[in-house]
């Protein structure tokens, strides 16, 4: 099933970014460390052109540290892109990103005018949180809902840096379809776009494959279920989630599984690895 979700305001966001891009010295692209590939905006490479970029793998606290290290290596060594990891409330680390930005822009620019940095990223990856951390005060709206919108604004930072916020809506990566599912699992795109229970089933299948022991421990299962659906049935049985007629209440199971996964109750979980997305890309290329 292809997932189609390209609202009109995303076209507007794209146009706005295209307009201001030539004035930017550097882009900070904020990604979700749990899904560094799926949370990349597919329009960014084309919009960015030759403008230098730092990719920030944010929400590091929620992601599997070993997998995050693989991603950082993959981006830096394989793709030649500067990549750092970050988590909220780490002001010094966040300011380190600005220092790195200064190093990446030629002195000839920095000596003559303010350094212009634009923050890009799909909704809910933590852009506003990062901007507020860098500014040391609340200048950008934050929220759990992906749909927080804001006007374009330049924020003055010390060391002659101007930070440009971008519209909250950007095009998420919905192909291959796994990317769409992963974005839905993290809550970056609304459950309504993809059937809620399908999202939970995708998560259940992945958890079983990547973190089988943790899942069994959390839900008190003695045996590793054969597949995602069997896992959901097992959770229903353990928690006594039954609908009318005694059938497993998969909606309730979906709610619990996704909420616990998002809240970190299942531990720090990454939803994709470089190896996995490379295999998916190879498969897509054959289509
Ligand atoms: P934006 O839409 O990209 O501007 O994202 P926000 O800054 O509004 O953040 C979206 C949600 O993620 C908010 O509830 C933030 O509190 C939360 N958030 C941001 N950064 C982090 C982080 O490093 N770790 C965790 N666990 N949550 C974060």
Automatic annotation (TrEMBL):
<dbReference type="InterPro" id="IPR030378">
    <property type="entry name" value="G_CP_dom"/>
</dbReference>
<feature type="domain" description="CP-type G">
    <location>
        <begin position="14"/>
        <end position="172"/>
    </location>
</feature>
<dbReference type="InterPro" id="IPR023179">
    <property type="entry name" value="GTP-bd_ortho_bundle_sf"/>
</dbReference>
<feature type="binding site">
    <location>
        <begin position="124"/>
        <end position="129"/>
    </location>
    <ligand>
        <name>GTP</name>
    </ligand>
</feature>
<protein>
    <recommendedName>
        <fullName>Ribosome biogenesis GTPase A</fullName>
    </recommendedName>
</protein>
<dbReference type="GO" id="GO:0005737">
    <property type="term" value="C:cytoplasm"/>
</dbReference>
<feature type="binding site">
    <location>
        <position position="168"/>
    </location>
    <ligand>
        <name>GTP</name>
    </ligand>
</feature>
<dbReference type="GO" id="GO:0003924">
    <property type="term" value="F:GTPase activity"/>
</dbReference>
<dbReference type="GO" id="GO:0006412">
    <property type="term" value="P:translation"/>
</dbReference>
<comment type="function">
    <text>Required for a late step of 50S ribosomal subunit assembly. Has GTPase activity.</text>
</comment>
<dbReference type="Pfam" id="PF01926">
    <property type="entry name" value="MMR_HSR1"/>
</dbReference>
<dbReference type="InterPro" id="IPR006073">
    <property type="entry name" value="GTP-bd"/>
</dbReference>
<dbReference type="InterPro" id="IPR019991">
    <property type="entry name" value="GTP-bd_ribosome_bgen"/>
</dbReference>
<keyword id="KW-0547">Nucleotide-binding</keyword>
<keyword id="KW-0963">Cytoplasm</keyword>
<comment type="similarity">
    <text>Belongs to the TRAFAC class YlqF/YawG GTPase family. MTG1 subfamily.</text>
</comment>
<dbReference type="GO" id="GO:0005525">
    <property type="term" value="F:GTP binding"/>
</dbReference>
<keyword id="KW-0342">GTP-binding</keyword>
<feature type="binding site">
    <location>
        <begin position="58"/>
        <end position="61"/>
    </location>
    <ligand>
        <name>GTP</name>
    </ligand>
</feature>
<dbReference type="InterPro" id="IPR027417">
    <property type="entry name" value="P-loop_NTPase"/>
</dbReference>
<dbReference type="InterPro" id="IPR016478">
    <property type="entry name" value="GTPase_MTG1"/>
</dbReference>
